Amino acid sequence: MLSALTSYLQQQPVPLTDTQPQTTAVSDAPTADAANNSDLQGLYAPSQRAVMVSAVAMDFDVRSLTSDDAARLQQKLQQYGLINGPDLNALALINTARADLNDGDTLDAVAILDDARSGFSERGTAYSERQQISRLHTLIHNIASARVTQ
Description:
Layout: H1 2-10, H2 32-40, H3 48-59, H4 67-79, H5 92-99, H6 109-118, H7 120-123, H8 127-146
Helix pairs in contact: 3-8, 6-8
């Protein structure tokens, strides 16, 4: 197990480090806020996953999906690598709800997954299925929170 962890850590990218020393004299900084902002510039970069989630959120409102949008959402999630393999099974919840939609109706993927997650013990959901639903639940909530409301 230790060798697997060591191998994993060796394959991780090296974190960005600031090559210039961070010596800021009080007289050089007009305000504390300006000094903090200048120190933080370049230190934060969103992860690729966060960028992908934001891109999906711009295209889809997961709280109001049409039948066609639900199908396109699944394709986009797979295309961006946000969901794959066994986690696709959790999308069956959304696809089942999509099949019951009439023309012009929308579904709330967040509410569907909230209901599924809250009913784990009632339905006796298997552990692996709970994990799949929980990962999709987190992803859909991230997409919903990344959506800019207009």
